[in-house]
Amino acid sequence: MHPKALTLVRQRGLASLMNHTRWTALAQALDCVGDNGPMVSIKYIDREAMDGPSHIHWQEFLQQGSEWCEWMDIHSCEPVHRGRLLAPALLDHCQAIQAVLKQLGQAFSQENDDQGGPIFRVWGYVEGRQPPALLR
């Protein structure tokens, strides 16, 4: 683990729920969902704001260090541009994402996004004092 990441984890009292092997398995499985994989938002331990939602280059994410990922929101609905006068169409990846999470035995929490679809949050770290309610 990168020394700066380890320092941040210790300072914030975070407990790790993921490791590089689990992130790699998740990345490989999600890369097969849809044409480009689902859209994700990522919160890193060294930043206040999250990145995304956007498509992700999984190899780049893994090479740069998954140990920096506090959590990742996997968006089940993906807007698809259809032109300037039409509302975007929505691709629903919900069942495929649920299948991946179940197959891997991946713990997650779930919320709804503003488009009405679920967001699956995979936690890299949780605060020891207030762990989220996780689903499997």
Helicity level, as a percent range? 25-40%
- Multimerization state: single chain
Strand tally: 9
Helix and strand string, N-terminal first? HEHEEHEEEHEEE
As a whole number of angstroms, the C-alpha radius of gyration is 15 Å
Question: What structural category do the secondary elements indicate?
Answer: alpha+beta
Total of domains: 1
State the strand order across the main sheet.
3-2-4-8-7
- Strand residue percentage: 25-35%
Span from first to last CA? 27 Å
- Characterize the main sheet: 5 strands, antiparallel
Q: Compute the average pLDDT.
A: 89
Number of helices: 4
Shape: globular
Unreliable sequence segments: none
3D structure, described in words:
The protein is of the alpha+beta class and 136 residues long. It has one domain (3-127). It has helices spanning 3-12, 20-30, 58-65, 94-104; strands spanning 14-16, 39-44, 50-54, 69-75, 77-80, 89-92, 109-112, 118-123, 125-127. The strands form 3 sheets. It has a 5-stranded antiparallel sheet with strand order 3-2-4-8-7, covered by helices on one side. Strands 1-9 form a two-stranded antiparallel sheet. The protein has a two-stranded antiparallel ribbon with strand order 5-6. The longest helix is centred in the first third of the chain and has 11 residues, at 20-30. The chain is globular. The mean pLDDT is 89.
